[in-house]
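User: What would this chain look like folded?
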Amino acid sequence: MKYHEFSIEERATIQVSRLHGMSQRAIAKALGRNCSTISRELRRNTGDNGIYHAPTAQGHMRQRRVVCRPPKKLVPGAELFELIVQLLREYFSP
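Assistant: Here's the prediction, encoded as structure tokens.
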């Protein structure tokens, strides 16, 4: 089974469902996800006040992705990138 991150729409559904008092199991069924997945999402992204807020959760996810991924070696505009492009245009082998 392939892993899919929550979309902002799914996070908004979780937020509204929690505000209406739905259980994690009911939310999981509505989203077609495992209840453990909902539990982990709530544990990771519920604020100190105990309230789950979808935009904040989305921001936390983006921050975690930035931290966990190594920086790119070739960035357009960088000196190394321009050198490689120039050498490829001169038919040097990659």
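Residues 8-69 form one domain. If you want, I can go into more detail on any region.
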